[in-house]
Write a structure and sequence with these properties.
CATH architecture of chain B: Ribbon
Low-confidence stretches of chain B: none
GO molecular function (chain A): serine-type endopeptidase activity
Family (chain A): Belongs to the peptidase S26 family. IMP2 subfamily.
Shape of chain B: elongated
Radius of gyration of chain A: 19 Å
Number of helices of chain A: 3
Largest interface: A-B, 28 and 28 residues
Low-confidence stretches of chain A: none
Order of helices and strands of chain B: HEEEEEEEHEEEE
CATH class of chain B: Mainly Beta
InterPro entries (chain A): IMP2, LexA/Signal_pep-like_sf, Pept_S26A_signal_pept_1, Pept_S26A_signal_pept_1_Ser-AS, Peptidase_S26
Helix content of chain B: 10-25%
Number of domains of chain B: 1
Oligomer: heterodimer
Strand content of chain A: 25-35%
CATH topology of chain B: Umud Fragment, subunit A
Main location (chain A): mitochondrion
Active site (chain A): 36, 89
Number of strands of chain B: 11
């Protein structure tokens, strides 16, 4: 009588480990909240029904161990102001680049090991323009596709931000 | 004839999944390089058995998920200047605390979501005194024990840094 139970336990444990390993190494899904990446990504709201209307994206972690990110990628990162929160922003500049802070005349050089992220919706986004360049170690993965809702399924493209970044070999 | 090979494959896959799951959720081991945490942790001299030199520590990730760290814990974190490097430092101050930067008269308040880490080794340590308060999202786990070499086996204690930190309500 104990056998089917043991069998179920073994299968459940195996399934759990496969999921954990997959989400650790390959990638995971995330639902979008907030408008900072509009129009690229649209949010769902906090009540359960509206949550189903928000974009769900898949982000891959295979680039993560080598930190092979490119300027213009949309990435998932841990918020520097609240480690429990994940944010989705676009990678604008990498270490050594010079970035013009919008709305002022200063330019900053991104220190070693850090990067500059911004949301596509400039007006609403809390990002590097507020908290400065962030360590690349906070970036968890790269958003590759939107998987929900069905009419918005598609790739999330790498868009190089024009006019905002000077690469180190140019200056 | 295929059966023993299949059984071996299944067992290996299970072992791999189990290791990945455990190191992701429970904890992992790390070897110390460098002197920045002396005398608590020793780097050891180079010798033929290079991989056995230097203290090996176990760090747990169960606190990591909720970021339940305490002042005085020794933690493992990703370096802000090189995301492929890991560092081991002591957590000196948390968000909202006021800290005296050694060697100057200034006091800084640690911003939200960040923390201040220092190596026990003092001047030779590259830490928050060089790169400032770090996002808690970089911290990967808490060192609990030294597990190698055998004569140095033991717990790594939480040592509250006296006289360095003022908590927000004391200022």
């Amino acid at each position: 009588m104990a056998e089917p139970l043991w069998f179920l336990a073994k299968r459940s444990a195996a399934a759990a480990m496969i999921c954990i390993t997959f989400t650790d190494i390959v990638g995971n899904f995330a639902t979008i909240q907030g408008n900072s990446m509009q129009p690229t990504l649209q949010q769902g709201h906090k009540d359960f029904i509206s949550l189903l209307k928000g974009d769900v994206v898949f982000y891959e972690k295979i680039s993560a161990p080598a930190y092979k990110y490119c300027r213009g990628d949309v990435v998932v990162l841990r918020s520097p102001t609240d480690p429990d929160q994940l944010m989705v922003k676009r990678l604008i500049a990498m270490q050594g680049d010079w970035v013009n802070v919008p709305g002022s005349h200063e330019i900053h050089q991104i220190p070693k090991g850090r990067c500059w992220v911004e949301g596509d919706n400039g007006n609403l986004s809390l990002d590097s323009r507020n908290f400065g360049p962030i360590p690349l170690g906070l970036v968890k993965g790269r958003v590759t596709i939107k998987v929900w809702p069905p009419h918005r399924i598609g790739r999330v493209e790498r868009v190089l931000p024009e006019g905002q970044v000077m690469f180190t070999d140019i200056t | 004839m295929a059966e023993p090979a299949w059984l071996l494959a299944k067992r290996s896959a299970t072992a791999a999944l189990l290791s990945i799951t455990l190191t992701d959720i429970v904890g992992n081991i790390a070897r110390t390089h460098g002197d920045s945490m002396q005398p608590t942790l020793q780097p050891g001299e180079k010798n033929l058995l290079g991989f056995l030199k230097g203290d090996i520590v176990f760090f747990e990730k169960i606190s990591a998920a909720a970021y339940k760290y305490h002042r005085g814990d020794v933690v493992v974190l990703r370096s802000p200047s090189d995301p492929n490097q890991w560092m081991i430092k002591r957590l000196i101050a948390m968000q909202g605390d006021w800290i005296n930067v050694p060697g100057s008269y200034e006091i800084l308040q640690i911003p939200k979501g960040r923390c201040w880490v220092e190596g026990d080794g003092g001047n030779i340590s590259l830490d928050s005194r060089t790169f400032g308060a770090l996002p808690l999202g970089l911290v990967q786990g808490r060192v609990t024990h030294k597990i190698w070499p055998p004569h140095r086996f033991g717990r790594v204690e939480r040592v509250f840094p006296k006289g360095r930190v003022m908590l927000d309500d004391e200022v």
